[in-house]
Design brief:
Length: 103
């Protein structure tokens, strides 16, 4: 498994309600994304950084999303280009299902 973290340092502060509305508007586009296990939308406490934390089945699945078109879409949404980092994810603790998932 791979975790990808996309962050956007915003030009101006974003309130939680504003962030929630933006996130809800884009969430449906990720529901059927092949290989995407889970996505978290995040907002920093100071409202100056937003991001997405994605858990993927594989790096190939992640790379299929992070195209030039995706970068253009999210840059248009937030007014800045994303910083994107990949992390190997060998173990996940899933408390709601009481499972430990090992890649």
């Amino acid at each position: 498994m791979i975790t990808a973290i996309a962050t956007f340092r915003l030009p101006k502060r974003l309130a939680v309600d504003e962030a929630r509305a933006i996130f809800q508007g884009t969430a449906p586009r990720y529901q059927s994304q092949p290989g995407l296990i889970r996505k978290y939308y995040v907002l920093s406490e100071d409202g100056m950084t937003v991001g997405g934390i994605y858990l993927w089945e594989s790096r190939a699945a992640a790379d299929a999303l992070y195209t030039d078109e995706w970068r253009a879409f999210v840059t248009g949404k937030y007014g800045v280009a994303p910083d994107l980092a990949y992390w190997e994810t060998p173990v996940v603790v899933d408390n709601p299902t009481q499972r430990i998932v090992v890649a």
